[in-house]
Amino acid sequence: MTRKTYPGPLVSVSFDGEICQHAAECVRGFPEVFDVARRPWIDPTRADTEPAAERLREVIGRCPSGALEIVESGSSPAGEEN
Questions:
Q1: Is residue 51's pLDDT more than 80?
Q2: What sequence ranges are listed for the domain Divergent 4Fe-4S mono-cluster (predicted)?
């Protein structure tokens, strides 16, 4: 498993490209954070208010493959490579 974490001010996003099904729930649900034309394509710094962080949690909850995970402050994602 190759999981990478993208840090944000309120929550971070962990992504495993090996299990992503490319359903695009993330891109449609929060294009300000998930933009495949940008590098890095995940930018949780754009979810810098609590309502935006809650929206990010909800969008990631719709990820059908589990490739995306929310990482709350002070925790680390399962399978994270150090």
A1: yes
A2: 6-72
pLDDT band at 73 (very low <50, low <70, confident <90, very high): confident
Span 31-55, mean pLDDT?
97
Its sign, for the CA torsion 32, 66, 6, 55, is positive
Cross-strand pairs, 42: 34
Looking at the structure of the chain, the number of domains it has is 1
Residue 66 CA, chain-centre distance (Å), reads 10
Give the domain range for residue 46: 3-72
User: Which single residue is written with the structure tokens 């979810």?
Assistant: 47
d(CA 23, CA 17) in angstroms, rounded, equals 12
| Chain position carrying tokens 């949690």 | 57
The reported pLDDT for the residue numbered 74 is 65
